[in-house]
Amino acid sequence: MSRLLRRLWTGLALLDARAFGLRVARCPFCGPTLFVRLNASDAGVRCLRCAASAVHLQLGAALRALVPDLALRDACELSAQGPLVEFLRRHARSVALSEYFSDVPPGGRRGTVRCEDVQRLTYADASFDLVMHSEVLEHVPDDTRALCELRRVLRPGGIMLFTVPLHGGERTVQRARLRAGELEHLCEPVYHADPLRRDTGILAFRDYGRDILDQVRAAGFAEAHLVRSGEGLPWLAPRDVVFARR
Ligand SMILES: [Zn+2]
After folding, report:
1. How much distance in Å is there from the Cα of 223 to the middle of ligand 1?
2. 14, 66, 142, 188: least CB-packed within 10 angstroms?
């Protein structure tokens, strides 16, 4: 199916005519443009030009506000398509893109797309000035190891900017874990929608609390903050994005 048809199909599946709306506002990736609301949830809001979803709009707004010197930065993003990727391609000095495929060795490729496992990245130490990821870490069995890897590939002073679902409380709730390679559920399993795994979705290993900042600092980052991002995006409440510096 072509990308346009798939977009249209996804849009129709989400549509609730009572909540439908159009508004002019500034997209962090496209500038002033039209936004559509297909239903009353955050998932129903999109930039009509680049199709950025709520989470990408909020992360994009943080990127624009917090990384003004993007053109001087070698960036790494743990996905390979979408409006954030296109923006990084246009504005960063360079960008390394990847997806995680369980059946491709890290560093290998499926077609043109590089495979990376954030728990054992194949990039050299100190390769990047910016690493970004969005709604990834909650799906990673060993997120502590992932954070150490993300720090390793950053240059000193480099920035990590990312989103995870935050439940608003202090403590992270572990939902599942791997023990000796076996998956163990500690709560009712929750699967998030994933464009690469449309049929099954992807398991959430945890719901993060504000203590994720302690975890980021424990992985060796010099600073870590929650930054409220996305003021002025139509229909969307601003959300917290994690900003960290090596
Ligand atoms: Zn846009």
Report:
1. 30
2. 188
Ordered by where they begin, the domains of the chain are 53-245 (3.40.50.150)
Distance between Cα 192 and ligand 1 center (Å)? 23
pTM, whole model, 2 decimals? Answer: 0.91
Cα distance between residue 240 and residue 246, in whole Å: 20
Using the mean position of ligand 1's atoms as its centre, give its distance from the Cα of residue 33 in Å: 7
For residue range 109-119, list pLDDT tens digits in order.
999 999 999 99
How much distance in Å is there from the Cα of 83 to the middle of ligand 1? Answer: 7
Determine the distance separating the centroid of ligand 1 and the alpha carbon of 140, expressed in angstroms.
28
* Cα first-last separation, the chain: 42
187-231 pLDDT, tens digit per residue, is: 999 998 887 777 788 999 999 999 999 999 999 999 999 999 999
